[in-house]
Amino acid sequence: MHRRKLNCWEYMKCGREPGGVHAHDLGVCPAASDDSYSGINAGVCGGRFCWAMAGTFCGGRCQGTFVEKRASCLKCDFYKRVQVEEGTANLRTKFLQFVTLDGETPLIKEMEVRHIKAGDRFIRQGDPVGPAYIIQRGACIVLAEKNGQLHPAGHRGEGDIVGITSMLTGEPRTAHVEAETDMEVWVLDEKTFDDLTHADPDLLAFLTELTADRFDSRRPTADRMVGKYLITDIIGRGGYSIVYKGLHTGLQMPVAIKMMRHDLAADETFLTNFRNEARIIAGLSHENIIKVFDIEERFKTIFIIMEFVEGRSLKAMLEQLKKIPAEPAVYYLVQTLAALEYAHRKGILHRDINLTNIFILNDDRIKILDFGLACPVGTQDFTSFGTPFYMAPEQIVSEPMDARTDLYALGITAYQMVTGQHPFQEERFDALMDLHLKHDIPDPLPLAENIPESLRGFILKCGRRDPGKRYQSAQEALETLLPLAGRLKKEAL
Fold first, then answer.
1. One domain for residues 392 and 267
2. Residues with a known catalytic role
3. Which of 70, 169, 205, 322 has its CA at a distance of 20 to 30 angstroms from the CA of residue 484?
């Protein structure tokens, strides 16, 4: 468990926080009350950058501007405490892990070392693209300017990199950066950065987490923009992407934003598949398939802008209920089959149907998510696995796939819904693949005693290892379940 970081007023005991003992006569300290940019200095971030705020209260008196009080703030115990805490907390965003301090990394030898004096503003908001800086020694503060006022937006110390956002996007600088102490930095130009990322695949994975860390925060708006979209929160992480909640700033419309991981963005095959996801889903229009609005290529990766939906995954529902009763289970399966039938008619397979990718909206409608592994019918390309628990035999051995491949995965999903567990209880990958290849889905009846016979038959037929013995289309499977759906609905009334 992470220890909660103290705000300045908690540490200094000044009593000028909202409701504090001195707030009535001395006023609320600006470091405790500033809620600009989604509350950068309120709530969990309150007061963390108090030294950058004018009018704070320390040593029994109100202080002046950042420039006027900098010298005393750098000697403050709270400032030193934050320096230590931020240096420890941000280890996963430290760039120095990819270079050696002795300069033996060949590319580092070519980089200029610059000395920056305390108080110098070495990056200015609005300036055109320039180099980034890797901090060898010292610390700096990131200041966003709004309506002529400065708002602290971040703190960087030894091993951090500053100015990288502008280099990645090609857009003007989004904030000022001022040296809090004397600093020594490596100057990282765009060519050197490109050479570094091509030479070190781990650096690309680091870049994904660095970008995610900058976006997953309550920092100023400029740090969280992707084109015209404002990123607010991380809502999901997967093997090849990170999904955020966001906002179209012009339309004030909520969206979901999927960011491809940088190490995969460097792989042309994965990059093609990821672009293909946007093209495929953008061409689909069905009430049970997530809608794609836009695509942005920035930060050396790709962002897919999608419809934002509220609800929970089928996996989350199953974790809560343990088993899903027949009536809602059939209702969700019918909707999924309708969506698959539509996509298959368009010549598109999903290729990764599972509990996570079936999302239940608050009105009980479903949306199929993540066509990232989708491919044309008949493809033999095996560049992506899918989810092992759901993989059809033909998918495992890289034989041509068709609509029956998605139906196999849906059969396993249905088995889980009514029994609460996987049909093949095996964690080892090779043994799990062997079970898929040699066995049909087991009978769910021992674990789901009240299962309707037609639902049981649906699961067993979908789960045949021989594609010729499965339903031959989503439409055929749908026609099997529709009468049961109607009967169960009447019984529920």
1. no
2. 352
3. 322
Report the DSSP beta bridge partners of residue 115: 184
User: Strands 229-237 and 225-226, how do they pair?
Assistant: antiparallel
DSSP labels for 259-279? EE-HHHHTSHHHHHHHHHHHH
Query: What integer best gives the mean pLDDT of the chain?
Result: 81
Structure-token pair, residue 150 = 């400065």
The partner residues of 231 in beta bridges, in order of sequence, read: 246
Residue 476, Cβ density class (10 Å: 0-12 exposed, 13-18 middle, ≥19 buried): middle
- In this structure, the answer to whether residues 332 and 284 fall within a common structural domain is no
Residues 391, 433 contacting (CB under 8 angstroms)? yes
Interhelix angle 326-345/474-492, rounded to 10 degrees, is 150
Give yes or no for a contact between 460 and 440, defined as CB atoms under 8 angstroms apart.
Answer: yes
Instruction: Look up residue 218 and give its two tokens.
Output: 């309550």
Is there a single domain that holds both residue 83 and residue 123?
no
Structure tokens at 77: 């115990």
Give the residue ranges of the chain where pLDDT is below 50.
1-2, 37-40, 43-44, 92, 101, 103, 218-223, 380-385
Domain closes at, from 307, 330, 364: 307
Q: Which pLDDT tens digit goes with each residue over 469-487?
A: 999 999 999 999 999 999 9
pLDDT (0 to 100) of residue 182? 93
What is the pTM for the complete model shown?
Answer: 0.66
Contact between 219 and 236 under an 8 Å Cβ cutoff? The reply is no
Position 222 in a domain = no
Q: Which two tokens stand for residue 21?
A: 């003992």
Give the three-class secondary structure for 214.
Answer: helix
- Give dist(CA 237, CA 215) in Å, integer: 13
Burial 289-308 (b: 16+ CB within 10 A, else e): bbbbbbbbebbbbbbbbbbb
